[in-house]
């Protein structure tokens, strides 16, 4: 058997990293942490593993090309990799063991679990303190800006620096709090402060327009439902102080899709808020 030293060329031809907060309001900052694909050789087989160094789940797709190689699975291979973890992707070996073989790899990954399925039986808490009541300025399909991929969003009108609480438990995966700019102009669309929390079913919740230095949690922190996570503000694309809330999932093409969810309020379960009406947290 003649096997020359093998080289794995990790061609990052398709590597990209869209952020979860890519709506009209919160544009996610670029992450310094990344994803690595490495190999471990056992005899004449190369085992490829991916390490996700980010605080959120990712979906990674990898393909292999080359000469005289064979895989232990069909390709392309797509895997969901949990935060700060390593997962085996595939194994590569010679098709004809009497000949040399070589292979190259290319992979791409996006933030989030594209196979996530929202738990529709879950009833969310209102994202503010029990006993507090705030007016809904814009509900699902709101005429001002709740359309397209953020159609299932809710704006709660509240004074600056009101306490914001987690509507559902999860892990903090993105945040921004360094902005003090806001207004009704295109230039402010990437100036919103926000917190993004990943839920156990792979969906995310976004809390946007927070005040400067108004994020009260840390990246990677586990938060429980009802925990204070920030202070409301008026940053980003905004016409006045309020909290923008929505639940979303990531599609296979990396785009975000907001989801309709139900909330528990002092007066019962609400499936769709009425604009102009006040709702009290239960």
UniProtKB/TrEMBL annotation:
M23ase beta-sheet core domain ranges (all copies): 152-249
InterPro entries associated with the record: Cell_wall_metabolism_enzyme (IPR050570), Dup_hybrid_motif (IPR011055), M23ase_b-sheet_dom (IPR016047)
Classification via CDD domains: M23_peptidase (cd12797)
Domain of life the protein comes from: Bacteria
Annotated protein name in UniProt: M23 family metallopeptidase
One Gene Ontology molecular-function label: metalloendopeptidase activity
Keyword check for NAD: no
């Amino acid at each position: 058997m003649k096997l020359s030293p093998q080289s794995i060329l990790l061609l990052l031809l398709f590597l990209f990293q869209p952020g979860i907060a890519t709506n009209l309001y919160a544009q996610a900052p670029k992450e310094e942490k990344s994803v690595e694909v490495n190999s471990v050789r056992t005899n004449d087989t190369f085992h490829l593993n991916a390490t996700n160094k980010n605080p959120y789940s990712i979906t990674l797709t990898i393909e292999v090309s080359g000469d005289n190689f064979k895989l232990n699975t069909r390709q392309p291979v797509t895997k969901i990799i949990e935060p700060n973890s390593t997962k085996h992707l595939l194994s590569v070996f010679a098709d004809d063991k009497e000949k040399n073989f070589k292979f190259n790899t290319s992979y791409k990954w996006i933030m989030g679990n594209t196979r996530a399925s929202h738990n529709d039986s879950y009833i969310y808490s209102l994202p503010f303190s029990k006993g507090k009541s705030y007016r809904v300025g814009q509900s699902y399909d709101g005429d001002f800006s709740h359309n397209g991929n953020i159609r299932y969003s809710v704006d709660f009108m509240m004074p600056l620096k009101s306490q914001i609480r987690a509507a559902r438990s999860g892990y903090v995966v993105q945040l921004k709090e360094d902005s003090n700019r806001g207004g009704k102009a295109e230039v402010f669309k990437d100036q919103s402060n926000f917190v993004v929390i990943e839920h156990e079913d792979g969906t995310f919740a976004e809390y946007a327009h927070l005040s400067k230095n108004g994020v009260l949690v840390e990246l990677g922190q586990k938060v429980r439902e009802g925990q204070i996570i920030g202070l409301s503000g008026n940053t980003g694309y905004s016409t006045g102080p309020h909290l923008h809330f929505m639940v979303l999932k990531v599609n296979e093409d990396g785009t975000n899709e907001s989801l309709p969810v139900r909330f528990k309020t002092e007066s019962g379960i609400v499936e769709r808020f009425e604009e102009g009406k006040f709702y009290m947290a239960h």
